[in-house]
């Protein structure tokens, strides 16, 4: 039989170099908030596989629903007919929508595909071409989604040219203006809305602009919630100019932020909403949700995909939605969120920590950096140790916990399972505080 070490070595040789990894090990088993590795380590997972397994790994009801569906119908091709779990899922999602106008559903596999679908829908329905994205955004890795991704050059380096017709406005994150973390949201909001107005006057005419796309809590770009007044301002500009607002809830959706969807904090109505990740708790499934008035403009046959809305993934998503309701997940998110902020709060006095922020269980700690942006950045701290976020995350890993960084800045992000126990949350926070203590002396 092959040893764990020899299998890892095989993987290192034969799995594409294009994929980076946190740990050189095989993930053998997942159960709740824990992952067991092939070398025997049991790891507390505060990543949820990048905000996917929101109900923990292998939630028994979700896995059972998928197993049952496997014996009934695996592949019910959406261009051949409806299948039961597809329609049942829509029934479950309708009452969860952040606005009752969102009543037309199209399921796909990945978040990136949902973004591709949203771009096509926005272009075709509006008859306009350009899409405005925001600085720091992450929308995926396929060519259209990649063109909208502005969080790290490595995602696109060497892969250009990307989809044309994309314009970038700043996101209300203090870094984008070299302002301190204490900058009032109202100031960031007016800076960003002004820049957007300028973009519409100087670069992309409103009559050429199909949509503005954004994450209500920017994910890979730093885990920053957009201020509600900024989102309301976007909605006003969109209404004034006939531009569609695409809200990407792929990472922030499904209770992660303490509401069904993060956009609810602002009360803003999305024209198109994209979802994935937490939708099916680990099964590949994404969705493009809009109002019928918009999707009725699509020609039959213009959308589709071999595996789009797979029956097993949809059955898992139905069980996931039921568990959200039956297992009081929202209450747990809000109770654990308060505790998480409570554990992190004392770190604010540490001069190496710039900011602690987030909503629900989508929370970030940002460290100072000696090299950040440019020598002109007033936040640059030449005395801060280098690469604090990844060093702290690595130390947490050595102590038995997976924690991810974001793609830009010195940020670690907490995304424990939404049903994480009080004890496991405390355990993870203790590990983190210890790691910070050891790395930032
Ligand atoms: N949008 C957002 C906000 C995301 O966080 C991600 C994935 N991190 C995507 C889109 C792309 O999803 P996928 O990786 O499933 O293609």
UniProtKB/TrEMBL annotation:
A molecular-function term among this protein's GO annotations: identical protein binding
InterPro entries: Aminotrans_3, Aminotrans_3_PPA_site, Class-III_PLP-dep_AT, PyrdxlP-dep_Trfase, PyrdxlP-dep_Trfase_major, PyrdxlP-dep_Trfase_small
Top-level taxon of the source organism: Eukaryota
Alphabetical UniProt keywords: Aminotransferase, Pyridoxal phosphate, Transferase
Cofactor: pyridoxal 5'-phosphate
Family note: Belongs to the class-III pyridoxal-phosphate-dependent aminotransferase family.
Record protein name field: Pyridoxal phosphate-dependent transferase
Species of the source: Cristinia sonorae
């Amino acid at each position: 039989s092959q040893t764990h070490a020899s299998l890892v070595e095989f993987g290192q040789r034969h799995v594409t170099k294009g994929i980076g990894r946190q740990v050189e090990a095989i993930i053998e088993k997942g159960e709740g908030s824990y992952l067991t590795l092939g070398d025997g380590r049991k790891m507390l997972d505060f990543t949820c596989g990048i905000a996917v397994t929101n109900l923990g790994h292998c939630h028994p009801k979700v896995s059972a629903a998928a197993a049952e569906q496997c014996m009934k119908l695996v592949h019910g091709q959406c261009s051949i007919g409806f299948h039961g779990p597809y329609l049942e899922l829509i029934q479950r999602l309708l009452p969860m929508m952040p606005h009752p106008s969102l009543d037309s559903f199209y399921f796909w596999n990945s978040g990136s595909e949902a973004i591709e679908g949203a771009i096509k829908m926005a272009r075709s329905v509006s008859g306009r071409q350009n899409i405005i994205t925001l600085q720091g955004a992450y929308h995926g890795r396929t060519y259209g989604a990649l063109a909208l991704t502005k969080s790290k050059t490595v995602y696109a380096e060497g892969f250009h040219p990307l989809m044309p017709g994309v314009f970038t406005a700043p996101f209300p994150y203090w870094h984008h203006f070299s302002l301190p973390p204490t900058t009032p949201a109202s100031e960031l909001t007016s800076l960003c809305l002004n820049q957007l107005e300028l973009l519409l006057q100087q670069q992309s005419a409103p009559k050429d602009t199909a949509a503005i796309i954004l994450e209500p809590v920017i994910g890979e770009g730093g885990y920053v919630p957009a201020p509600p007044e900024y989102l309301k301002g976007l909605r006003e500009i969109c209404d004034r100019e006939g531009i569609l607002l695409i809200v990407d809830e792929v990472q922030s959706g499904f209770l992660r932020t303490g509401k069904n969807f993060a956009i609810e904090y602002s009360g803003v109505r999305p024209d198109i909403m994209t979802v994935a990740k937490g939708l099916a708790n680990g099964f590949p499934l994404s969705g493009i949700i809009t109002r019928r008035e918009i999707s009725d403009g699509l020609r039959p046959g213009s959308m589709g995909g071999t595996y789009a809305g797979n029956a097993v993934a949809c059955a898992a998503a139905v069980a996931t939605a039921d568990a959200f309701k039956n297992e009081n997940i929202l209450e747990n998110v809000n109770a654990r969120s308060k505790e998480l902020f409570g554990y992190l709060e004392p770190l604010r006095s540490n001069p190496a920590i710039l900011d602690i922020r987030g909503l629900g269980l989508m929370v970030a700690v940002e460290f100072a950096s000696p090299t950040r942006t440019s020598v002109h950045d007033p936040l640059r701290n030449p005395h801060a140790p280098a690469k604090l976020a990844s060093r702290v995350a690595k130390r947490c890993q050595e102590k038995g916990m997976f924690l991810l960084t974001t793609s830009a800045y010195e940020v670690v992000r907490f995304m424990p399972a939404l049903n994480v126990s009080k004890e496991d949350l405390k355990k993870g926070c203790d590990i983190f505080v210890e790691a910070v203590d050891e790395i930032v002396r």
